[in-house]
Design goal:
single chain; Aminopeptidase; 7-stranded mixed sheet
């Protein structure tokens, strides 16, 4: 696994647009900015764009992050089923073990929803885009509750 560089931009963009149905909004300048910010990870045939929140942020109606929480902005695998995306999720959980990890997924992307559920993410609720015309789900992999449980059960 490695952080992406600008030399990877064309491959990242081509991989993303090959999934245009799931990522109709993806733009090359968005990927470039994420690379420049150090928020793109490549693993074999998959890549991840993530964001670590610095302040409380509303990600959907009724759902807020706290500082330190992480959201998957994009996770794309050019060879679906290769396991590369699962390895990226493992890296994410190990790198950020004590925060909540979020993903907001279009409802018309059942493969992504199943992927997140298989990797231990919980569907917390619903959301939508484009004035309610594109339904989605809010998923989370809890880390904060695990930390709080650990802190409270290990005090004397």
């Amino acid at each position: 696994m490695r952080k992406a560089t600008l030399k990877d931009l064309e491959w990242l963009y081509e991989t993303a647009i090959s999934h245009r149905k799931q990522l109709p909004y993806i733009r090359k300048d968005y990927i470039k900015k994420a690379i420049e910010d150090g928020r793109v990870l490549i693993n074999k045939s998959a890549f991840l764009i993530w964001l670590k929140y610095r302040r409380k942020t509303k990600i959907a109606e009724g759902f807020y992050t706290v500082p330190g929480d992480v959201i998957i902005k994009e996770i794309v695998e050019s060879e679906q089923g290769s396991g590369a995306a699962t390895e990226i999720c493992t890296w994410l959980k190990e790198t950020y073990p004590n925060v909540d990890l979020w993903a907001v997924i279009r409802k018309d992307n059942p493969r992504s929803i199943r992927f997140h559920e298989k990797n231990g993410w919980l569907i917390e609720g619903k959301t939508s885009w484009s004035k309610g015309t594109i339904p989605g789900v809010v998923t989370v992999k809890r880390g904060r509750e695990c930390l709080l449980t650990h802190l409270f059960t290990n005090t004397k």
